[in-house]
Predict the structure.
Amino acid sequence: MSAAPSGITLATLTKDVRLEWRSKDAINSMLFFALLVVVVFSFSFDPVAEESRQIAGGLVWVAFLFAAVVALNQTWARELRNQVLDAYRVSPAPANSLFLAKAMGNFLFVGVLEALMTPLFVVFYKLRVLGPAWQLLPVAILGTWAIVVNGTFFAAMSLRTRSREIMLPLLLFPITIPALLSMVEATTTILVGDPSTSAKFWIVLLATYDVVFTTGCLALFETVLHAE
Amino acid sequence: MKKAFPILGLLTAGLLSYALYEGLVVAPKEQTMGEVQRIFYYHVPSAWTAFLLFFINFLASVQYLVRRDPKTDKIANWVVITIGVLTCVAPYAIPSLVPAGARASSIATTGVALVGLYFLIKKFFSEQETDMLALTTAEVGVVFCTVVLVTGPLWARPVWGIWWTWDVRLTSTLVLWLIYVSYLVLRRFSSSGQTPVLAAALAVFGALDVPLVYFSIWFFRTQHPQPVIGGGGSIDPRMLHVLLINWLAFLCFAFLVCWSRYRLERMKREVEETQALEALLEPRSALR
């Protein structure tokens, strides 16, 4: 049950990053998907600067959530080829090292996606931050981890189901609602910059969500991996 | 045991009709809302029943997970007892911990109920049976939760003038419903051998999610009338009487449906086991 990042975590993470660096499967599909979401949304809303500030928080995070699902679906499917996952299951390596490596890898991929997509959002929706902009950084980090840690866990769960591609969002979205609400509200609060409200509550809630579900995932992942 | 089921069925039918009569005829008319308030006797007992069933589902799922290993089982016992003792002692010892609007006694009662239910389930259900219990309570709970979500808007339309609003109670009930529907979808879609473990893990995640959902939406907005029982509001004692009778009737009904569903599930598994065994013993007859 050891949760400390070990050599196995690092090795798996390096392997995943190298695979991604060479194939660019996840990043490309995520990027294109998020781009499509942005374009379709901007057709359906066509907002002026003031309105777009109100809705941008929601749009950004919904786009990132949908795009993340694309990457999350691929994360374990890759290990099914050549029975890699079965080999991992019979090896004495701790299951949580594998989980942490996968979660960190996904965090990295979704983080790169966010870094590339944010400028595009700013341009398309004519955004200008009126509140304390530095607060967007903790929101982004905590929010991405919230999506990714549960997503990695549920992707491992939906691996054993029929029509697994559709199972992941069905499991992930209901559980993620409080995190998504926090991200959206925090981002909107910061963008609008109303001095009477603060994003602090939402950031604390997001941090609580992260702590609770990271603990939950680490406690249950071994059981789920070995479920037969 | 064979006779207990129809007897309980008859009793429940009688109780339900009596509760309906009490709710529609005996209970006094509400001053401002009028007759439409009577849906309250349907709405609130369904909600309480649904929450109770989801709570049992959570306890059964936890037990299914921890009882696989005797060591974690023992740890879980002590954790449950500690939580029970803490909820009984802490609200009285440190009154500032009790949230506004709640009473120390209701928190203590919840703690006692938690410990009692946990060990009752443990005593009467084997490891495999806790999974069946979890499945049954989730299914029936979703039905009752649907009743809550349907009767709520029916009441809200004439009283608030709107069908739906994104208020904390409405939204968290909806999210709860969504979580348990996804639980049932997972059970339906996963292959049989792993379903119990995956479902139990998801149930634990859902239970972890509930307080977070509640807090996030509570901070978001609130419109639902404050709870009249246990909260700050007041209720006519005659209405409370009718409400409690209705809850009793709904609990009996839920128990009846759960029981019948449970028996069905057990029979289904027995049939599956027998068929698997027969196929093993007589490979040729299975092919035929």
The radius of gyration of chain B is 21 Å. Residues 237-281 of chain B form the longest helix (45 residues). Residues 31-224 of chain B form one domain. Chain B touches chain A through 30 residues (CB under 8 Å).
